[in-house]
Structure to design on (776 residues):
């Protein structure tokens, strides 16, 4: 907008000066033939330079109007070169170089009018044609335009020089003919029309054409003064040539101004670029992210210092390594695919892979990559911590889901086993009566024997289910692990056979643990049996116990503190990763249908958790399996297990508390055989009433009872009032058995001999121990 206002002001100034000189335009001035040579030379040089600079602008704008202006200025420069050759005394005193007396007038008027016509056409093109020249055609069209301008000038000079006598006269003496004046005024009209169109239609939108309007106004006003002078060497004649010389420099001034402005911008840009380069260098140096430039061939050519800080490699070391030597082998194909996407034209590619630290460890890197001019620019962020946190979270979620699944399965199997135990109690309890009645009947005795075996197997099955469900009635005592493992040696040797080497390693300084001794030995036996089946031929099984201190990372349950780790390791085929998480599930087995129940490891799982510990399996495929039982250390003193004794119960009055009538009938008969007079109570309220009415020598109570109190709470109530009254608890479900540390527990289903032994131990005030033998 400033340029537009300045243009208007200058045009106004030129018009005012012209109007001031107009009355004096006809005054004669000194005759200086050499003036024309100087004038023409200046115009020629200036307009040749202008034509060249317009061709430079053409390459940027691709506008046809700019091409025509370049041709017009070339035409004007060539006509300026021809002008002094035909002017009298301009170069050679007393004669012309070419043509006759009228040649100069025709050359000058063709010069003025031709330039005016070309300029006017260029303005019309700028206004009316919005298309551009194809870049590939710019050079060709420039050559053609310049050639046409040169040819036109050459033709005009030849015609005006050779046919001067045949052309109408344009000057008589030093005075102009009307035709000459018409040419001058015609040029003035075209120049004026061009200026008006530029100012009114283009306005401030086009600086180049605004400056062109100044040049055209200057020429138009000069021609106006020349036409008003009407002859050579008048004031108007001199003013016309001076104005033309000035107009030829107008666009040069425009280009000079552009140069100065662009130079200033270049200086500022260079300074900004230097500052940004310094900023980039600072960011490059201090960035915690990996920044680098690599080739598509896989070699880095520039790296920032973060590579050394994060991965340990110096820049020169990385430059000599192919990128595949740094990437994790499992990530190579995915990374190559990302590089191929860049090569295919994808602007930005993001991916994650692992890069090798100099110490051999791996770091997860999240990359953002782009390509430019055949190079790959990368920025990588270390996400190792995030990956480890995600893995830990996934493991925690999987562990929580596994615990929930095992708990749900435990509740289901525990409930089923509890009801099944009551049924087995009834079956096994009536076996002695059936055996007595089958005396003398061989087939009947075989049937009773089959029933007894089936009942024993059912009892073993429910025992394993309850162990998994952590509902197995237990009698925990402090034991020395090394002594129990040593005592199992003979049994284990016979179990694994002679082809398998069995080693047991447990020192006497192994800490004591509080567990159910029979359940512990059963868990070890189950593990050794599984190891034997996994080895299946020549191999080895190692059984060991050691003291460990857990800090929370060794087990899924995040156990901490002092534990005894009992390990069973074999050299078998290992466990496939896809089934490793299922091995503790009840009834899950990889053996044949007749080779296993799938309850061995579930018993191990239930036993360790019920004892306050856990079980962990490590089994790389093809490298054997190691099962570790973590059992918490106890501060109690381990005692040796007492020898079995089967004392006779003295008899007396016994209170039997049992809500299941069929089970109560079996227990009543057993107590009667032991010499007791039995009073039956179906619930806790009836039992407390009976205690208040009669003296009893023994109380036998089921733990799981209807109502608000269970058998343990009943026993505690009786103990508070009658501390010397013997109390024996019975259950097939340990939902509350863990709450009875002061009372012995007899496990359902039990046989007559087991009840007799339990009562004998109780009346003999023996230390509490496992009262029901293994049913297997």
């Amino acid at each position: 907008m400033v340029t537009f206002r300045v243009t208007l002001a200058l045009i106004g100034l030129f018009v005012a000066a012209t109007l001031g000189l107009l009355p004096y335009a006809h005054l004669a001035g000194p005759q200086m033939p050499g003036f024309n040579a100087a004038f023409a030379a200046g115009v020629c040089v200036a307009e040749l330079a202008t034509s060249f600079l317009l061709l430079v602008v053409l390459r940027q704008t691709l506008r046809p109007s700019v091409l025509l202006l370049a041709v017009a200025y070339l035409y004007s420069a060539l006509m300026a070169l021809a002008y002094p050759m035909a002017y009298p005394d301009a170069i050679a005193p007393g004669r012309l170089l070419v043509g006759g007396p009228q040649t100069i007038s025709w050359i000058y008027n063709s010069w003025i009018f031709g330039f005016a016509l070309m300029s006017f056409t260029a303005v019309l093109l700028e206004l009316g044609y919005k298309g551009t020249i194809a870049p590939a055609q710019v050079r060709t069209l420039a050559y053609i335009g310049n050639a046409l301008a040169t040819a036109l000038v050459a033709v005009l000079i030849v015609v005006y020089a050779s046919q001067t006598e045949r052309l109408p006269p344009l000057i008589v003496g030093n005075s102009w003919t009307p035709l000459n004046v018409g040419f001058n005024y015609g040029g003035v009209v075209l120049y004026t029309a061009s200026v008006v169109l530029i100012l009114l239609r283009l306005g401030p939108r086009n600086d180049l054409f605004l400056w062109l309007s100044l040049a055209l106004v200057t020429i138009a006003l000069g021609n106006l003064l020349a036409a008003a002078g009407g002859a050579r060497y008048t004031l108007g004649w001199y003013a016309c040539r001076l104005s033309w010389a000035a107009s030829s420099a107008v666009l040069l001034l425009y280009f000079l101004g552009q140069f100065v402005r662009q130079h200033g911008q270049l200086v500022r840009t260079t300074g900004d670029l230097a500052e940004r380069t310094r900023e980039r260098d600072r960011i490059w140096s201090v960035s915690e992210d990996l920044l680098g430039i690599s080739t598509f061939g896989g070699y880095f050519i520039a790296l920032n210092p973060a590579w050394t800080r994060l991965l340990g490699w110096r820049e020169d070391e990385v430059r000599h390594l192919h990128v595949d030597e740094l990437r994790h082998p499992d990530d190579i194909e995915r990374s190559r695919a990302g590089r191929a996407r860049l090569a295919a034209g994808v602007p930005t590619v993001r991916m994650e892979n692992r890069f090798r630290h100099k110490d051999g460890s791996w770091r997860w890197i999240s990359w953002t990559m782009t390509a430019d001019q055949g190079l790959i620019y990368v920025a990588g962020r270390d996400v190792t911590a995030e990956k480890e946190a995600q893995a830990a979270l996934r493991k925690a979620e999987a562990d929580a889901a596994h615990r929930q699944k095992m708990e749900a399965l435990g509740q289901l199997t525990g409930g089923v086993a509890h009801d099944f135990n009551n049924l087995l109690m009834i079956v096994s309890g009536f076996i002695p009566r059936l055996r007595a009645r089958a005396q003398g009947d061989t087939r009947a005795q075989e049937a009773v024997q089959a029933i007894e075996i089936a009942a024993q197997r059912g009892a073993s099955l429910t025992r394993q289910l309850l162990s998994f469900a952590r509902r197995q009635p237990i009698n925990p005592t402090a034991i020395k692990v090394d002594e129990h493992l040593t005592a199992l040696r003979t049994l284990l040797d016979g179990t694994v056979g002679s082809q398998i080497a069995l080693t047991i390693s447990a020192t006497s300084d192994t800490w004591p643990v509080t567990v159910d001794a029979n359940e512990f030995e059963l868990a070890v036996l189950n593990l050794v049996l599984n190891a034997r089946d996994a080895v299946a031929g020549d191999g080895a099984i190692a059984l060991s116990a050691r003291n460990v201190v857990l800090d929370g990372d060794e087990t899924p349950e995040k156990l901490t503190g002092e534990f005894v780790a009992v390990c069973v390791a074999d050299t078998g085929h290992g466990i496939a990763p896809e089934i490793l998480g299922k091995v503790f599930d009840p009834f899950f087995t990889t053996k044949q249908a007749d080779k296993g129940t799938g309850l061995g490891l579930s018993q191990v799982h239930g036993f360790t958790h019920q004892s306050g510990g856990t079980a962990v399996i490590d089994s790389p495929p093809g490298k054997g399996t190691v099962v570790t039982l973590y059992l918490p250390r106890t501060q109690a003193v381990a005692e040796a297990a007492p020898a079995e004794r089967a004392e006779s119960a003295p008899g007396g009055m016994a209170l039997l508390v049992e809500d299941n009538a069929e089970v109560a009938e079996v227990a009543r008969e057993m107590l009667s055989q032991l010499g007791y007079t039995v009073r039956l109570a179906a619930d806790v309220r009836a039992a407390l009433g009976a205690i208040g009415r009669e003296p009893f020598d023994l109380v036998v109570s089921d733990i799981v009872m209807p109502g608000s109190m269970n058998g343990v709470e009943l026993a505690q109530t009786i103990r508070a009032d009658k501390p010397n009254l013997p109390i024996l608890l019975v259950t097939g479900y340990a939902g509350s058995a863990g709450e009875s540390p002061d009372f012995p527990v007899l496990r359902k289903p039990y046989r007559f001999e087991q009840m007799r032994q339990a009562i004998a131990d109780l009346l003999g005030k023996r230390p509490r121990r496992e009262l029901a033998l293994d049913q297997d």
Notes: Confidence is low (pLDDT under 50) at residues 641-649, 766-776. The longest helix spans residues 384-429. The longest strand covers residues 539-551. The chain has 24 helices and 19 strands.
